[in-house]
Amino acid sequence: MAATGHTASEYIGHHLQNLTVCKADGEWIWNHCDGNFFALNVDSMLFAVLLGLVFLIIFGRMARNATAGVPGRFQTVIEIVTEFVDQSVRETFHGKSHVIAPLALTLFCWIFLMNLMDLIPVDWLPWTAGLAGVPYLRVVPTADVNVTFAMGISVFLLTLFYSVKIKGIGGFTKELTLTPFNHWAAIPFNLVLESVSLLAKPLSLSLRLFGNLYAGELIFMLIALTGLYQIPMHLAWAGFHVLIIILQAFIFMMLTIVYLSQAHEHH
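Above: the chain sequence. Below: its structure as tokens.
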């Protein structure tokens, strides 16, 4: 369903354009926000929130209807995912917290649902939105670097919060200034090393997820340009890409657990 009458670069450029809104000269404007730092990608936010609600509805329904007897297929799948995440937390996180396991489960399922949107043929939802007068629509929130950075920064802030809470301001300061070399003369060198390591955490979380999903999105667009041959090629790539979708959700979850585990450790 690739658009006709457009070159390949125009087609890809159109599909990579977010539906944006920003304020300029006291007025809210749509889709002319290039260079505006405060522009909002409305489509990314919309789908991220909707998929978050889908996660809450699914697990809320499961919590209300769970049975102690032989579980149905739906309950079995939810229990497998929950037990998998719980085991990952038990094996990786060595502190005591009632937040880490629910956070890990939320991140894994939410990111998986956002990644899953990449399997929908790239023209379907934008074409439908175009009928309603919406000129641009990107449906994969994790292919938007703003979304992945927001998630990475959120985990980073949690890491800082627990580092200070568990170790105290003095302990956290010592960790930054007296590691790896426990000598006052090495404080500037230690501070540089630990600052780079600290700032690398949100970068590693956000850029890895964004890069993989953005690349997958581009490949699906290239497949759509093949016209009649796109359906078998789409299915073939989707079969492989679903592994990337699951893997990236798992990696983000595991790195979050590792970073929060480090925040709870005393050195």
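DSSP finds eight helices and three strands in the chain.
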